[in-house]
């Protein structure tokens, strides 16, 4: 696998309302575990649409991993200015990610025109990647369901997930690695 699309829930779907929420560290830890394994197996690119939440947290992680690994980040929003209605703190973080990415280009010129742009985005990511890594829960698919519907139609498309159980395992591992945990 050379190109991996990473996605998952938006912050509100996880009841995360601040960028410094401590649960983000657990999500990034779980993503880190999976991404490092894939990078060591030959992954070259992580691509995202740049949506708030898992995608932005994954992008931050990839930028950190670039210090150790030969990995590149591509950001392909469905249209220009997708962040114009986001909170200011997310807009600033998104702009920083766009500047730090190895490649960034919207799929459609101009702003939002209609839901067809999101459908086209999902198809584009399936066509341009070898597989995906999603933070997902079958019991609560949330916005993931639209991408998954497209991914399930593709042949030879790898779908990796990080489930709530995987996230709980990440929490436990992080807590147990803290020396104060054992006191």
Automatic annotation (TrEMBL):
Q: Which Gene3D superfamilies does this chain map to?
A: 3.40.50.450
Q: Which Pfam families match?
A: YpsA (PF06908)
NCBIfam families, per this entry? PRK13660.1
PANTHER family cross-referenced by the UniProt entry: UPF0398 PROTEIN SPR0331, UPF0398 PROTEIN YPSA
Q: What is this protein called?
A: DUF1273 domain-containing protein
